[in-house]
Amino acid sequence: MRYETIVGRTKDDLDKFGVEASGYIGKHIVGTGEDAHLTTKVYLDLLKPHVILVAGKRGSGKSYSAGAIIEEFCMLPDKFKQKIAFVVFDPVGIYWSMKVPNDEQLKTLTEWGLQPKDFNNIKIYVPESQIAEYEKAEIPVDGTISIALNELTAEDLVLAFNFERTSELAVALEKNFNQLLKAGKSFSIEDLIDLISSDKRLDKGTKDTLVNFLELLSQWEVIKKEGTKVRDLVKPGHVIVFDFSRLKSQEVRTLVAGLVSREIMHQRILARKEEEIAKITGEKSKAKFPITWIIYEEAHGFVPNDGETSSSADIKRIAKEGREPGVGLMVITQQPNKVHSDVLSQSDIVISFRLTSKDDLQALHRVHQTYMQEELEKMINKLPRVPGASLILDDVLEKIFLVNIRPRLSHHAGSTAVII
Ligand SMILES: Nc1ncnc2c1ncn2[C@@H]1O[C@H](COP(=O)(O)OP(=O)(O)OP(=O)(O)O)[C@@H](O)[C@H]1O
Ligand SMILES: [Mg+2]
């Protein structure tokens, strides 16, 4: 008889692998209120990529838990770790602190029989123009991120600028952008501005508006003539964090997230083919691009339920089709109701902390309908009011667990600001 729970692991995999290639994320909570106590360990399956929704109100433990899952990946034995990578889109700027041990919660860690630890395979990437700001704030940075303009599509820009698809602005932008793209060479925002400015078919108003939008985009110095290659950036065994916290433009964040997500999916489709060929021929696979888990913090900003951003189509595609090539997702949000339903409906694991809004509880219920809505609400309301108390809905096992997420080994930079 096994006592451990491995969330997301099929019975076949459990028989074959036991707890191998899984991560220790917490302990079962038994009883309610004053009587609540912790019992056996709960693990998370890391063998296969999943679509995980992490929901809960402000300060309930979402980012902290995502960090605990990343730590477990970092501590996997090499034979597993070398096949996986994590990519984090971090608009809040908190994941860099995983490079520092969690001495702050030493007492809690000791109670859990754990010790503070730092992780040096976390790699922080920031926009080049902001590197000095990070250095000044003493935040360790490993590299810079820039996107080559010719890797984007005209549609990406139309979405980023929030133009109506059939508007004069969108059509004019598309025509000029595609003209440069067809030439087959890399080009800068300035080249695009020059081309638009000299386009005789356009009236002055259209030109001025487009130039304004493009100049704003160029100010962030993220979209450039030459860009970082995703295939060189995402390395097996590494956690690549795109820290966008000092980048105020949500449009640029979604442009980067969209392109990087699309490219990861593309690279994995190619790698998967190589892996399949290797399986048939019995030779070693030439594929180098690892199975990748992508984490979107504040996911409603990347794949909203109302409207479209330049990253939404790519995230929805990964949610629907990522299983086979090996791209997993973790979408973190305070408001599941604001995340696109295509992503919610594909989640096979939900980690939910306290939620109070009816709409958000309904959104959770739509993901996982094994239980009645009222029952689910009751369970969430009954969660002990201690940090890390969560409800985990597991679609693979068709079960719901009450789990206290374990304390973090590495420092969590997202704690509440206080005035003393
Ligand atoms: N499992 C846990 N064990 C111990 N402390 C925890 C745990 N989970 C959360 N905390 C505490 O709660 C604080 C808030 O957690 P966290 O930053 O993850 O909130 P959040 O849900 O991401 O909030 P927001 O929506 O505002 O980003 C942490 O700084 C930590 O002190
Ligand atoms: Mg958070």
Explain this structure to me?
The protein is 37% helix and 19% strand. α7 (168-182) crosses α8 and α11 (250-281) packs parallel to α12. The chain folds into 2 domains: 5-107 and 228-349 and 387-405, 3-Layer(aba) Sandwich (Rossmann fold), CATH 3.40.50; 149-224, no CATH class. It has 420 residues and is an alpha/beta fold. A 13-stranded mixed beta sheet has the order 1-3-2-15-14-13-4-12-11-5-10-6-7. The chain contains 15 helices and 15 strands. Adenosine-5'-triphosphate (ATP) binds next to α2.
SS element count, helices: 15
CATH architecture heading of the largest domain: 3-Layer(aba) Sandwich
Q: Give the averaged pLDDT, no decimals.
A: 94
- Regions with little confidence, pLDDT below 50 for 5+ residues: none
Strand count: 15
Specify the CATH homologous superfamily of the largest domain: P-loop containing nucleotide triphosphate hydrolases
Number of domains as seen in the coordinates = 2
Helix share bin: 25-40%
Protein structure class: alpha/beta
Bound molecules: adenosine-5'-triphosphate, magnesium ion
**Order of helix and strand elements from N to C terminus:** EHEEEHHEHEHEEHHHHEHEHEHEHEHHEE
Major β-sheet, in short?
13 strands, mixed
- Morphology call: globular
- % residues in beta strands: 15-25%
Q: Examine the coordinates and then state which fold CATH places here, giving the name of the CATH topology of the largest domain.
A: Rossmann fold
